[in-house]
Design goal:
- The chain is α+β, with helices and mostly antiparallel strands.
- The protein is 39% helix and 31% strand.
- Strands 2-3-1-4 form a 4-stranded antiparallel beta sheet.
- The longest helix is centred in the N-terminal third of the chain and has 15 residues.
């Protein structure tokens, strides 16, 4: 069953450029992962510095395999260190 992953980040304006470099690296790697369907990054209009990434995966298992992988963890650790907080994740499944 396909799932949507919501990833929320709060980004100080002074760190947006550095974050974008890391997110581009992460996005490039993600697109080659088994089970990855699509993704988009949104910047909140009414709350500057808040970002939401929505990605779609064939299954929770395929997403978890990716999220726990060494290559992703390495970049994610840099993102969390840069932002000074852990990234928030939410997993949603289609309710048929």
């Amino acid at each position: 069953m396909a799932v949507k992953i919501l990833i929320k980040r709060r980004v100080p304006e002074t760190k947006e450029k550095e974050l974008n470099l890391l997110l581009n690296q992460l996005r490039a790697l993600t697109m080659n992962q088994s089970g990855y369907i699509s993704g988009e990054t949104l910047k909140r209009v009414d709350y500057p510095g808040e970002y939401l990434v929505i990605s779609t995966w064939r299954s929770t298992e395929e997403w978890r395999k990716w999220v726990l992988s060494e290559e992703r963890t390495e970049i994610q650790d840099k993102i969390d260190k840069l932002l000074g907080m852990e990234t928030e994740y939410e997993i949603y499944a289609y309710d048929y």
